[in-house]
Design brief:
Layout: H1 3-17, H2 21-24, E1 31-35, H3 51-56, H4 58-63, E2 68-71, E3 75-76, E4 88-92, H5 99-112, E5 115-120, H6 130-136, E6 148-149, E7 152-154, E8 157-159, E9 173-176, E10 181-184, H7 199-215, E11 219-222, H8 266-286, E12 292-295, H9 301-306, E13 318-319, H10 323-327, H11 334-347, E14 355-357, H12 366-369, H13 375-384, E15 388-392, H14 412-415, H15 422-425, H16 463-467, H17 473-483, H18 487-491, E16 493-498, E17 503-509, E18 516-521, E19 527-529, E20 541-546, E21 558-560, E22 564-566, E23 571-576
Parallel strand pairs: 1-2, 1-15, 2-5, 5-11, 11-12, 12-13, 14-15
Antiparallel strand pairs: 3-4, 6-10, 7-8, 9-10, 16-17, 17-18, 18-23, 19-22, 20-21, 20-23
The protein binds alpha-D-glucopyranose and magnesium ion.
């Protein structure tokens, strides 16, 4: 064989075995990190985090190996839902800084090789948005931008058009005097829903996407996707009532109704495909790395899988996988863990990539939800499963929910309830200032106040201290992150199994490379497991690669594969030798 063609043959053989990552998309093995900008780092002393604060701390993101970070909304907003009520989709809110600050952030991020992803809120705007004001005034261009209805009159009294209930309690319909009609809002009354049956709305939102992509962001986390469409109105312009959920007896509560007409309408999936086309349009226009969509939808798996796309259309590369976040609890055994992981892996369409979300700004933190003694185990699972990991700020430190009194509560989801109910509704406990050091206010701000109280344990749980402790949550996270650069973890196969109710094992393997096995004891018992009886291992001995402070073994210690000892709640990563 000719020398060159020999080489080519060899290359194609290698390529078959190990496709170069550049060819398959940077996001396929990425570490995503969510920043909640109000609470990450305050640069100007007003007690609220800002863009310059994020820019200052980008080296920290580099330190923990983040590929891309998605920022909760930074756009002009009256902050009724802390930025998820956008008044101008093309401007930066002055609380966070200026457009120049944002451009500086993008530039610094690019220098460091970190991609910036923005939050895109398609379902609604603020009622203070110019588009809504014009709609209320009946302006020809904007009058059908939102969902309006004159309501009905019962016994001479005006009532909302139907029984729909808002996510934040009470009717989804609020009266507007100027327009003399009700407008629909699936969330807060200051968050009127767009009317996606009006093609002009879709065009307006495409322009929002183009605007930020051309500035240099690499995509969007798309907010509240299942809520974007409501069922189409009938010939009289009316919408049907939603049926009752018999298990719920509070007529103001969102759970009182079964949301068959206001969530997961089929048009929503099509809309995500349309948004993906804009990512590809800008890929073609600007070149460079792929632009991505991360879609936020809680719902049935068969619906979520459709977000990936179908034979004729591409969809979201990353339909958030909330299986573990939504379904694990303190009492879950290893079978539950295994089943939830398999649910996604087994249902995912061919050629797509899994993602694993363990926290966000709406959900109780890992340490509070699953136990502070499981933090390292959960991070080991997150970072050794195949595909994309998504970490919410502070989870790498093991931050836990902070108790916030009714008086100090600011989250609208809690404030619209009452003193008895607010605690299980409030999202404030997971949104408290990030803990940088043991200085005043955890080094979050130089000012005297913070918009939410700082956790009382910040002396122990902070970046500065955890950097200096070899087996801190932070250092374990960093070790796991480095391990993800191994070809086996990037591209290897996965085998997930519960060895017993107490022990979960995740094996990653790639021909020609060491295999890695994450073993997690979810229980309070001491366990001894035989790994070579559940996995074909090709090695009788295993080496400890990552241990936690619960381990009596150290990194590089060896053990026989047929007898791996695990202390209560211990988790380790082992490799074949
Ligand atoms: C999403 C956001 C949440 C917000 C809601 C309304 O669920 O994550 O924080 O309140 O949408 O925009
Ligand atoms: Mg500030």
């Amino acid at each position: 064989m000719h020398g060159v063609s020999k080489l080519l043959a060899l290359c194609s053989l290698l390529a078959l075995a190990l496709p170069a990552l550049a060819e398959v998309g940077w996001w396929r093995t990425a570490q995503f990190y969510q920043i909640y900008p109000r609470s990450f780092k305050d640069s100007d002393g007003d007690g609220v985090g800002d863009l310059n604060g994020i820019t200052q701390q980008l080296p920290y993101l580099k330190e923990i190996g983040v590929t891309a970070t998605w920022l909760s909304p930074i756009f002009t907003s009256p902050m009724a839902d802390f930025g998820y009520d956008v008044a101008n989709f093309f401007e930066i809110d002055s609380t966070f800084g200026t457009m120049e600050d944002f451009e500086a952030l993008l530039q610094r991020a690019q220098q460091l090789g970190i991609k910036i992803i923005l939050d895109f809120v398609p379902n609604h705007s603020s009622d203070e948005c110019e588009w809504f004001k014009r709609s209320a005034a009946g302006d020809e261009e904007y009058k059908d931008f939102y969902v309006w209805h004159t309501g009905k009159v019962v016994n001479g009294i005006r009532e909302p058009p139907n029984n729909w209930i808002s996510v934040f309690r009470g009717s989804q319909w609020t009266w507007n005097d100027e327009r003399q009609a009700y407008y629909l809002h699936q969330f807060h009354h200051k968050q009127p829903d767009f009317n996606y049956r009006n093609p002009k709305v879709i065009e307006a939102m495409k322009d929002v996407l183009r605007f930020w992509l051309r500035k240099g962001v690499y995509g969007f986390r798309v907010d509240a996707v299942p809520h974007v469409y409501e069922v189409e109105a009938d010939e009289n312009g009316d919408f049907p009532d939603e049926p009752r959920n018999e298990w719920n007896n509070d007529p103001e509560d969102y759970g009182y109704l079964d949301h068959i007409y206001t969530t997961h309408q089929p048009e929503t999936i099509e809309l995500v495909y349309i948004f993906r086309e804009i990512m590809e349009e800008i890929d073609a226009e600007l070149g460079g790395d792929d632009r991505v969509l991360l879609t936020e939808a809680y719902g049935p798996l068969d619906v979520l899988m459709q977000y990936y796309g179908n034979e004729t259309a591409r969809g979201s590369q990353i339909p958030f996988n909330f299986e573990l976040l939504s379904n694990l609890n303190n009492n879950s055994n290893a079978y539950h863990y295994s089943e939830l992981i398999h649910n996604w892996l087994d249902k995912m369409p061919e050629g797509q990539v899994a993602n694993w979300v363990l926290g966000n700004h709406d959900q109780s933190r890992i340490g509070s939800r699953l136990g502070a003694d499981r933090i390292d185990a959960i991070n080991m699972m997150l970072l050794t499963l195949p595909g994309i990991s998504v970490t919410y700020q502070g989870e790498e430190l093991g931050m836990t929910d902070v108790f916030i009194s009714w008086e100090d509560t600011v989250d609208p989801q809690a404030c619209q309830s009452n003193e008895e109910e607010f605690a299980h509704l409030s999202r404030d406990p997971v949104r408290t200032p990030f803990q940088w050091s043991d200085e005043a206010n955890a080094g979050f701000t130089s000012g005297p106040n913070t918009w939410l109280p700082v956790a009382t344990d910040f002396n122990l749980v902070n970046v500065k201290r955890e950097r200096s402790i070899p087996l801190s949550h932070l250092n374990i996270y960093k070790q796991l992150r480095s391990l993800r650069d191994e070809p086996t973890l990037k591209q290897g196969d996965v085998d997930v199994t519960a060895i017993s109710p107490n022990v979960l094992a995740i094996k990653r393997s790639l021909s020609g490379y060491s295999s890695y096995i994450t073993v997690i004891n979810v229980s309070d018992d001491v366990e001894t497991v035989s790994l070579d009886s559940v996995f074909p291992l090709l090695s009788t001995k295993l080496r400890y690669v990552v241990v936690s402070d619960k381990s009596i073994r150290r990194t590089n210690d060896e053990t026989f594969a047929n007898s791996v000892l695990l202390l209560p709640k211990e988790a380790v990563v082992l490799s074949t030798i």
